[in-house]
Amino acid sequence: MVDALGSEKMFGFLKTAMNAASLRHQVASSNLANVDTPGYKARELDFEAVMQDYVDQEAMQPVTRGDVRNPLPPPQPLNFKDYITVKDTGYLVDQFDGNNVELENEMADMAHARGRFKLASQFMTRKIRLLNEIMASR
User: Fold this and answer.
1) Which of 41-45, 80-84, 113-117, 124-128 is predicted least confidently?
2) Which of 130, 138, 136, 133 is nearest to 7 (CA)?
3) Most buried of 55, 59, 113, 117, CB within 10 angstroms?
4) 23 alpha-carbon distance from chain centroid
């Protein structure tokens, strides 16, 4: 039971979620900083793709570290910058100066990223507290 609670995969997942949420917040902040820059195109981080790639990468790893039958190399850290793309505003029309940053959308993206970060950090804090309680009771 302790192994499942303290698994490296779960902590890695939460760390990845926190890093991706933080970068998503930074991208939205950068968009806001360029709201009046002529020709600027808003960018976005695909949080779901980051997390899915992390899960897929972890699923390909051997169950135990000493599994010599699995020839796969250790997982490489995800490069979050690869998941940043120019935001497809779809129905929205660019402003006259070619800028497509929408203040309300960026504020909503920042709030969403903040919520994801907070959720992951709270979950990690609870896991650490539980592990500490288990270790203290032994």
Assistant:
1) 80-84
2) 130
3) 113
4) 7
What does pLDDT average to over the chain?
A: 83
CB 130 within 8 A of CB 59: no
Compute the distance between CA of residue 59 and CA of residue 121 in angstroms, rounded to an integer.
23
Q: Which two tokens stand for residue 138?
A: 């032994």
Residues in a beta bridge with 45: 84
Residue pair 80/53 in contact by the 8 Å Cβ criterion: no
For residue 22, is pLDDT > 80? yes
CA–CA dist 103, 70 (Å, integer)? 49
Q: Do 73 and 8 touch, CB atoms closer than 8 A?
A: no
Residue 64 carries which DSSP code? S
Ranges of beta strands (E only) in 3-123 are 43-45, 84-86
Each domain of the chain, given as residue ranges in start order, spans: 2-136
